[in-house]
Amino acid sequence: MTKQTAEIGMIGLGVMGRNLLLNMADHGFVVAGYDRDADKVSALAAEAHGGQVAAAQDLAAFLSGLKLPRAIMLLVPAGSPVDAVIAELLPQLAPGDLIIDGGNSYFEDTERRTVELTQKGFQFLGVGVSGGEEGARRGPSMMPGGSKKAYERVQKLFETVAAKVAGEPCVTWLGPDAAGHYVKMVHNGIEYGLMQLIAESYDLMKRGLGLNNAQLHAIYRKWDQGILSGFLMEITADIFAQRDEPTSLDRIDLILDAARQKGTGMWTSQEAMRLQVPIPVIDMAVMMRDLSGGKAERELLASELVAGGNPAPPLVVALEDIREQIDALENALFSAMLLTYTQGLALLHKASTAHGYDLNLADVAKIWRGGCIIRAALLDDLWSAYRHQPQLAHLLLDRRLAQKILDRQQDLRQVVSSAAGQMIPVPALMASLAYFDAYRSARLPANLIQAQRDYFGAHTYERIDASGTFHSEWQRS
Questions:
Q1: Active site annotation includes 234
Q2: pTM (2 decimals)?
Q3: Looking at residue 291, what is its pLDDT?
Q4: Annotated catalytic residue 184
């Protein structure tokens, strides 16, 4: 590879960085990769496409192979590692060079870096990349934010390597500053909610109905062919068909029931609370990951507080004997998943104004239809809703979408009620139902909360028959 021929350089050759770089090379782009880890550099070199890919462990050599002005993408862990890489790069770059952060950075960090780098004459993009290892290699969904002029420099490359739906790339410029990383944060929050809902459906069928893994595989595969079709449903079906090589047992039964998080779900919940946008399904998903980590305490309480345990389900259940329950659960899960997307997009609607992103939610729904982890058939309906009503504040205001939930609400109620009776925790499903019922309640009991706050703290209250704020001298009876 001759000097200054690479159209883009990649710093960070882990799973995502290496595969995205190879994806670019697959499409004819000359690229270069850099990592301090010799094994990662060797792994890229082993898969290199002749002169299309250069792999370097020396930063100066890597930079010398990039066309001017340079375009450099970082795929390194979020937080201080991003700042450290940028600090190392800047003395060796020139004004006009473009730095692209493709990791899961917190949006406020992206806002800060945008200001700092722009003041120094550099261009900067914060780009959310979703799709995992396979997506990076074959076509991810990409969520760029920052300078539109900077995006135009890499637009052709991004559109070429992104996933395609009906021939359209799952990437578009979303807005200034940290718009891209903000959208990716909310994408991940929705992902948390969807995964928790699917896990609850698994628990209901495994513990509640006594189904075995082969039956669960068949159900999730069938669901993936209907209204629940999507990437997470597809991989869930696949998981229940996997055998563990060392033991020949079902792999799912050997996995510890303690989930972890990297922060994006928590950030989504924190930001929603700051902007006062309710996202209870996502909040519950974050909480349940935290709760699952207390394995020792859960096992102790299971023996102390559940004397006799749950009623034992039958050892073998024929699916035809419980078809109604399975169909009801499918409808309940669809409703709850739709409400989870609704909550995430309501947050984006509020954030669009609060942060000055001017987001086009039709574009967001459009690029989520392919490549990303939360891609699903129902995103076509969300895309359609925003195309017809670009300023739609809440998806439940779209009658067609609301009707999909109204048609299935009794199944959601039945599933939540049955779970409570069996002592099977389904907090995300419950939160979905409560959110739906609360949002369509013309009156909520918040008037009592206002009265209580004024009683003990003179916080004042508002009235339905007069404007302004009021305080009363409450008398104890």
A1: no
A2: 0.95
A3: 95
A4: yes
